[in-house]
Amino acid sequence: MPDGIDAQTGLPDARAFRTAVQAAVDGAGRGGPRPAVMVVDLDRLGPLRLSLGPAAGDELLGAVAGRLAATVRRPDLLARLRPGAFALLLRETPSPREAIRHADEVVDVLRRPLVIGGAVVAPRASAGLAFAGSATDAVGLIGEAELAVARAKVDGGDRWSAFEPALHAVAAARDGLARELDQAIDAGALTLEFQPERRIAGALGQAGTIRSVEALVRWRHPARGLVRPADFLPVAEQTGSIDRIGAWVLREAAAHARSWQLTDPGYARLSVGVNLSAREIGRPGLVAEVVSVLAATGLAPATLTLEVTIAAITHDPRHAVATLAALRATGVRIALDDFAGDANTLGTERRATVDVVKIDPNLVAAVASDRGSERAIRAIVQVARDRGIETVAEGVETREQLAALRELGCDLAQGYLFGKPLGASGISAVLRAERRRGDRVSA
Ligand code: C2E
Ligand code: MG
Ligand code: MG
């Protein structure tokens, strides 16, 4: 294969593309047409290749290259940038409107199903557009298109985005946050809050016994105060820091739960919920890590519940289902978090078996006022009961919601009505106060 050509697709490679872009930028500097660059990056390529197998993965890339080539106009250039990413040099600057139409076409054409190795595959791709102007060389211009494609992915993928200078600031802020977060992990600045899940059987308005507490991570930031997970976990997912965070959360949560179990025989079966993100489910060694934390803390497996969302499972379904099955085999329980889907798919989600379903707070919020939500929850509770799955309503804030959920037969509830998440000492105090009132934890 000649120099500058990608062996797998026969397209120009990244270096050849850079050279071509530089020539186009130089040409524009001499008064020639202004070029633009579009980076096209396949979404979720890793999981797709894993589920297809290596040969079919190559066939897929070939088919994608073919589809992209069909969108290319004559003076333009299509290249392979890296394994799952292609790039287009739009030599004669298209008006932004034309370039956007092209980006639309690219995203759309890659969305159409392909038959690969006998299976129907619907790849998805994100595209990022950058116009020569602020960037004065090829590396800068391609870098701007990369920032734009990263933005399209953060927004959910299967879309295009155009570079704007503000993206530099966003990227810099993200890198800064990632660095700070890594230091915070080392400095012990992460902390856990716990929120009770209560049984909701019993007289209306009477808080039931605490069955479980969910561990929720926070970052004690010197300037920003207590930072919520939504403001740092996405970055931690991107940079991989989530692996260290997750390992810490698991150990810390298990140790606290064990100490509460030991403090009072009434809480011997108190369980603790720990959330797992998509990347954590994919982490090799997760099962061994869970087993070792259980052994180190003395926590009975049945009193640990690992919470996963459907989105985290669908990231790489085959691997996730196998991992969840291996986790269940150790005796820990699996909860499906934020469930708002079709009740009939419950417990068969990509064949993942679960022990608990946590009903999405959006459904719960409307349970007392909207018949559709009420029907959806009724169906979830019924199917769950048939399949031996426990139900937890999340985000319960009002007595009306609680009454409706109790009426529907939901097992447990969690939400501000019963208390906001509290630090370990705060939860210890709540647990003690309950015991003084003579309540018992039911297993
Ligand atoms: P989640 O697992 O669904 O946790 C429930 C979220 O709802 C928590 O938000 C909790 O504070 C909030 N919440 C509880 N009751 C109410 C209520 O009555 N009303 C409203 N509006 N909200 C309520 P938080 O702590 O901000 O966590 C957000 C998400 O971050 C969690 O959703 C979970 O997906 C993720 N997360 C939290 N801690 C961890 C962790 O240690 N590891 C991983 N991987 N993810 C975590
Ligand atoms: Mg959760
Ligand atoms: Mg949830």
Give a quick precis of the structure:
Helix content is 45%, strand content 21%. By secondary structure, it is an alpha/beta fold.
Structure description:
It is a single chain. By secondary structure, the chain is an alpha/beta fold. It folds into two domains: about 15-165, Reverse transcriptase/Diguanylate cyclase domain (Alpha-Beta Plaits), CATH 3.30.70.270; about 175-435, EAL domain (TIM Barrel, Alpha-Beta Barrel), CATH 3.20.20. About 45% of the residues lie in helices and about 20% in strands. It contains 16 helices and 17 strands. The protein has helices at about 15-30, 45-50, 55-70, 95-110, 140-155, 165-185, 235-240, 240-265, 280, 285-295, 310-315, 315-330, 360-365, 370-385, 400-410, 425-435; strands spanning about 35-40, 75-80, 85-90, 115, 120, 125-130, 160, 190-200, 210-220, 225, 270-275, 305-310, 335-340, 355-360, 390-395, 410-415, 420-425. It has an eight-stranded mixed barrel, surrounded by five helices. A five-stranded mixed beta sheet has the order 2-3-1-6-7, with helices on both faces. Strand 2 (about 75-80) and strand 3 (about 85-90) form a beta hairpin. Helix 1 crosses helix 5 (about 140-155) and helix 2 (about 45-50) crosses helix 3. The longest helix is centred in the middle third of the chain and has 22 residues, at about 240-265. The termini are far apart. About 40% of the residues are buried. The site of ligand C2E has 25 residues, from strand 9, helix 8 and strand 13.
